[in-house]
Amino acid sequence: MDENTENKKQWYVIHTYSGYENKVKANLEKRVESMNMGDKIFRILVPMEDEVEIKDGKKKISKRKVFPGYVLVEMAMTDDSWYVVRNTSGVTGFVGSGTKPIPLHESEVRVILKQMGVEEPRPRAIYNIGQNIRVISGPFENFIGTIEEVHPEKGKIKVLVSMFGRETPVELEYSQVENV
């Protein structure tokens, strides 16, 4: 997989017929494999959570769909990948305004994955103390800063950015910065 595809992969929500979420997941996984789209469509999830039910004095744990009628797809949005997902049996469309699918925000995805007990793969540490970076998202977008601390276990770095004439420490995620 090339670096451009890796950088463009985002989570999208697809709408399905209610009750067909797992069937859509299976159908889409088969299509990804048969059409060699593994480099553009990465993960397909039906958000589930454990539900505890007490029946006849016994505790029963069952899985419950968090968002009935919806499936999450991690993909790099291209005409080809859009076509494969959109034309999968049981898919009624992408969630978004008009014809353009809108990706989920990274923080929303983290909450959903954490709720499901699925951990995001940790990004490898590609940053070093003293290195200059540019902030590419968030409130400090387009600021240039110098890395003061690296926390690979959290996927975060502490950066000194110059604001109002003084150096201000800011904690950012790897995904919010790029090398200068």
Describe it.
By secondary structure, the chain is of the alpha+beta class. It has 2 domains: 3-116, NusG, N-terminal domain (Alpha-Beta Plaits), CATH 3.30.70.940; 132-179, SH3 type barrels (Roll). It is built from 4 helices and 13 strands. It has helices spanning 3-8, 21-34, 79-86, 106-116, and strands spanning 9-16, 41-45, 48-55, 58-65, 70-76, 91-94, 96-97, 100-101, 132-135, 144-151, 156-163, 166-173, 177-179. Strand 3 and strand 4 (58-65) form a beta hairpin. It is globular, with a radius of gyration of 20 Å. The model has no long low-confidence stretch (mean pLDDT 85).
Keywords:
single chain; 180 residues; alpha+beta; Alpha-Beta Plaits; SH3 type barrels; 2 domains; four-stranded antiparallel sheet; 4 helices
In brief:
The protein has 180 residues and is of the alpha+beta class. The protein has 2 domains: 3-116, Alpha-Beta Plaits; 132-179, SH3 type barrels (Roll).
CATH class bucket of the largest domain = Alpha Beta
Shape: globular
How large is the share of residues in beta strands? 35-45%
What is the distance, rounded to the nearest whole angstrom, between the alpha carbons of the first and last residues? 23 Å
Radius of gyration: 20 Å
Q: Count of DSSP E strands?
A: 13
Order of helices and strands: HEHEEEEHEEEHEEEEE
Poorly predicted parts: none
User: What's the total helix number?
Assistant: 4
- What name does the CATH topology of the largest domain carry? Alpha-Beta Plaits
Give the rounded overall mean pLDDT.
85
CATH H-level superfamily title of the largest domain: NusG, N-terminal domain
**Class from helix and strand fractions:** alpha+beta
Largest sheet: 5 strands, antiparallel
Named at the architecture level, the CATH assignment of the largest domain is 2-Layer Sandwich
Question: How many separate structural domains?
Answer: 2
Q: How are the strands of the largest sheet arranged?
A: 12-11-10-9-13
Can you give the helix content as a percent range? 10-25%
